[in-house]
Design goal:
globular, TIM Barrel, alpha/beta, 21 helices, Rossmann fold, Immunoglobulin-like, 3 domains, seven-stranded parallel beta sheet
Length: about 775
């Protein structure tokens, strides 16, 4: 048959296959089911498909699987019951083989997997979360990380990932802040394009590429009160100028899948928005891929949003709006056929959705090369190269927020005894973030273990002490006495505080009074961040602050490390700590990276991609707010504790005055901005040069300043280098009240420096159009 013959064109193959399909088979292509529920693991590591799944395949009722290899407390797949990398690849081959050989037309399945910061499968490399990866301000490094994730995922048969998350954060009380790139649309757009290049840039049919799914489309990070899936109150102009920007850049980079957001915008749920899915995404941007819902989002049209009365109406509405595939739901499978029979849904929209999905399956090469090599999966997954890459991303993304009197780096020869105190000092899952699979003992290098290995290599591991002191959320102070006893023996205390996005993996815990491991978990969850875990405050939970204050009273040098998924507002710590490091969730190699930074083996170069407020009452607070942002509060002004772009180094950098050339351009022309940067300190290091733009007079209100360029550069002591930014019409444009992107004549202030709060300025003038 034509669709089985690779010598025919893509469109010929798709059209031939579509013409042979029954309505039920077409509907089946729009259905994605939970993959881990389709089989049972045998004692020898092979799998047996369930009879229910076999029947679904034989009847053509399923087109894709969600997270067949996902392992976590939700799936109830553990290290003992899950599949190794080799077994996972063999399992997906088994599933695919049955789908191809036992279905009427032999249409292969599309396997979608979760890969926010590494494939969420047993044995995969666990990278830092996206918030830390963004903090590297290194798009090339992030692209390399995404490519490594694609290699591991595709080697097991996964062909799509539900990342990157492109939501712009407006309220970090939102639990999914850790999954994002932060608060800036330009930076998010550059990282989004890098993610697409890394994940699928080698071609969809390449053995080291997977589909990038852009989510959540759109406005999800600007929800009311920072609550997950709450309504979004945003005008269309702001939507186009901020939240849609990274999605557009990722589509331009070639992304072929988009996931709708749970939220509504101005009364219209994203899952049923023809304006977003057809007018903006496909007509304006030329997107030629497929659109997938978030899990059970279509059901919310009936139960939650209540904009329709029945499942039939919901499926018809979503299909017409542009939905092609339903993630792990049952709306299409239960209601679309009846909707078509009753005339509520139009079969032309069904054909359109099926055509889009089949095109991607052909482009993935699934019809011609449907299987993977289990030996290759075993070889590539969690390779030494990927482990080192995870470490390098952590090194470059960890941020030095404060360093009074050059407390850091620690001089190992004269430091004396070091005490690691705090609930995140030696808790592996707490440094990995949400969407993480079970991890074997010893794979995750904690702060304590990282310092221990560093000191052991120098024969000084007897200088290291440890006490947990307290837990993340628990109000118990039973561990204080032991922690203060340990801290009292030390010369320097490293307090490791913060949060946790760890699900209940059933791991052991520690006795707070002795620091010894216990066999069983205490039963109290420490999770205070992650999907669905939103907060009313952003201070430290439990008694962490009290523990820190008690340790500080001992008069020791106090270094605070935050391991967490959202900014922490603790003014007391800002005032009293000698040094503060923001490590976000640094992944499996985080402990090594932090030890290297603490002892000066690595010069910190991470920069904030989200403002850190002084108080929760300042929220929302972000650097690119409007000039007309309103008056100050009675209690405090609107300045954050640490601004967007902030991050310290163990060396210093000096900037020359920026030079704009030409300084006078027309709206369709470009200009360059050149600046000389010199390492004026005694250590080599990375500097992140940041360019901000201010439109001084405009026809619509504009942000006070906007990031429009950045450059990460390595400089030796005393070395100077010239950095050149190019400003194109796209950098200068605004979105009008009519939603047109235009460059208006006038003056633009250029600021180049090391953060959004510092820098030297120049002026660029745009003349009226010729």
């Amino acid at each position: 048959m034509i669709y089985q013959d690779a010598t025919y064109s893509l469109q010929e193959r798709v059209q031939d296959l579509l013409s042979r399909m029954t309505r039920e088979e077409k509907v089946g292509q729009l259905v994605q089911i939970f993959g881990w529920q389709t089989f049972e693991r045998n004692p020898d590591g092979t799998i047996t498909l369930t009879e229910e799944f076999r029947q679904q395949i034989r009847e053509g009722h399923v087109g894709a699987l969600y997270a067949a290899l996902r392992a976590d407390p939700w799936t109830e797949v553990t290290l003992e019951t899950g599949l190794s990398p080799r077994e996972g690849a063999a399992a997906l081959n088994t599933i695919q083989k049955y789908a191809i050989e036992q279905s009427r037309l032999g249409i292969p399945l599309m396997f979608g997997e979760e890969c926010s910061h590494g494939h969420m499968a047993i044995g995969a490399t666990v990278y830092p979360v996206p918030l830390l990866a963004a903090s590297t301000w290194n798009t090339e490094l992030y692209e390399e990380m995404c490519h490594a994730v694609a290699i591991e995922t595709r080697s097991q048969g996964g062909v799509a990932t539900y990342s990157p998350v492109l939501d712009i954060v407006r309220d970090p009380r939102w639990g999914r802040t850790e999954e994002t790139y932060g608060e800036d649309p330009y930076l998010a757009g550059e990282l989004a394009a890098a993610a697409v290049r890394g994940l699928q840039g080698r071609g969809l049919d390449a053995p080291d590429s997977v589909i990038a799914t852009l989510k959540h489309f759109v406005g999800y990070g600007a929800s009311e009160g920072g609550r997950n899936a709450a309504p979004v109150h945003m005008g269309m102009k702001e939507l186009h100028e901020v939240d849609l920007v990274p999605f557009r850049k990722a589509v331009e980079a070639g992304a072929v899948s988009v996931m709708t957001a749970y939220n509504e915008i101005d009364g219209v749920p994203c899952t049923s928005s023809e304006y977003l899915l057809e007018e903006v995404l496909r007509t304006q941007w030329g997107f030629d891929g497929f659109v997938i819902t978030d899990a059970s989002a279509m059901n919310m049209l009936v139960h939650g949003y209540n904009i329709v009365e029945s499942g039939e109406q919901a499926t018809a509405l979503a299909l017409k709006a542009g939905i092609d595939l339903e993630m792990s739901g049952s709306m299409f499978s239960r209601y679309l056929n009846p909707a078509l029979e009753q005339g509520i849904a139009d079969e032309a929209y069904l054909d359109q959705a099926v055509k889009r999905l089949l095109e991607i399956k052909f482009r993935l090469g699934l019809f011609d090369r449907p299987y993977v090599d289990p030996d290759r999966a075993e070889q590539l997954i969690h390779s030494q190269e990927h482990i080192q890459l995870a470490r390098e991303v952590a090194r470059q993304g960890i941020i030095l927020l404060q360093n009074k009197e050059n407390t850091l780096p620690i001089h190992v020869e004269t430091a004396g005894k070091i005490a690691v105190i705090g609930p995140n000092g030696n808790t592996p899952y707490n440094q990995l973030g949400d969407y993480t699979s079970p991890q074997p003992e010893g794979k995750v290098i904690t702060v304590l273990e990282g310092i221990r290995q560093y000191l052991a290599a120098k024969g000084l591991d007897d200088q290291l002490l440890y006490a947990p002191g307290c837990r993340i959320r628990d109000e118990s102070e039973e561990g204080f006495e032991y922690a203060l006893e340990v801290a009292g023996q030390a010369d320097t205390v490293v307090m490791v505080l913060g949060g946790s996005s760890a699900r209940d993996f059933g791991e052991g815990t520690v006795d707070l009074r002795t620091g010894q491991s216990l066999v069983h978990n205490s039963g109290a969850s420490d999770m205070e961040s992650g999907e669905g875990i939103d907060r009313v405050d952003i201070n430290l939970t439990g008694v962490q602050l009290k523990l820190c204050q008690a340790v500080h009273a001992l008069g020791k040098k106090l270094i605070v490390i935050y391991i967490n998924g959202r900014p922490v507002a603790e003014p007391w710590i800002d005032e009293h700590a000698d040094a503060i490091i923001e490590a976000w969730y640094p992944g499996q190699e985080g402990g090594h990276a932090l030890a290297e930074i603490l002892y000066g083996e690595v010069n910190p170069s991470g920069r904030l991609t989200i403002s850190v407020p002084r108080h929760v009452g300042q929220l929302p607070i972000y650097y690119n707010g409007k000039r007309t942002r309103g008056k100050r509060y009675l209690e405090m002004d609107l300045q954050p504790a640490y601004p967007f772009g902030h991050g310290l180094s163990y060396t210093t950098f000096a900037y020359s005055d920026p030079v704009v050339s030409p300084a006078l351009i027309h709206p369709d022309q470009s200009a360059t901005v050149t600046v000389q940067i010199t390492n004026t300190g005694s250590r080599a290091g990375w500097e992140v040069a940041q360019l901000y733009l201010t439109d001084l007079v405009s026809s619509v209100t504009r942000p006070d300043k906007e990031l429009k360029g950045f450059y990460k550069i390595w400089l030796e002591p005393g070395e100077s280098s010239e950095v050149t930014f190019t400003l194109t019409p796209e950098h200068l444009e605004l979105v009008t009240a009519q939603l047109h992107r235009v460059v208006e004549p006038g003056e633009f202030r250029i600021q180049v420096g090391s953060s959004s709060a510092t820098g030297k300025s120049a002026v660029l003038t745009v003349m009226a159009a010729k």
